[in-house]
Design brief:
This protein is mainly alpha-helical. It has five helices and two strands, in the order ααββααα. The protein has a two-stranded antiparallel ribbon with strand order 1-2. α2 packs antiparallel against α3. It is elongated.
């Protein structure tokens, strides 16, 4: 085979490359839509059409993270109530969304370490894989 002695590449074995023209769902928040339009063109060799739902989840989590951050900037990290001063509930929401964003970034190869493991597969390699299956 043509990859002897090198690290194995993560292969996309089904589906077609995701189109740069695919639009995010209409219900997605504005920050998620901006991320979608910024990231999707850069995922051409990694993401394919079966990754649409994962892309939606990634961008939605990103939108939630940004919305929580905006709320925290406006209202502050701490709130006062009858029990005293407590952490704003949006701190937990932001942390959970950030955790989801990090996981999707890893899945799509959007961190430096993840890019070492996830490499796009060219069309010739996909054709060879399809023939083997």
């Amino acid at each position: 085979m043509g990859n002897r002695g090198r690290k194995p590449k993560a292969a996309v074995t089904s589906g077609t490359k995701i189109s740069k023209c695919v639009q995010p769902p209409a219900w997605m928040g504005p920050h998620g839509k901006l991320l979608w339009k910024r990231i999707l063109p850069k995922l051409g060799g990694v993401a394919n059409d079966i990754d649409y739902d994962a892309m939606v989840a990634y961008c939605s989590a990103y939108n939630t993270m940004i919305e929580a951050d905006i709320l925290l900037q406006r209202e502050g990290l701490m709130l006062s109530n009858e029990r005293g001063t407590v952490a704003h509930p949006a701190t937990r929401i932001k942390a959970q969304a950030l955790d989801q964003v990090r996981r999707y970034q890893t899945e799509f190869g959007l961190t430096p370490l993840a890019r070492l493991r996830v490499q796009p597969v060219d069309d010739e390699e996909l054709d060879a894989l399809d023939e083997m299956l």
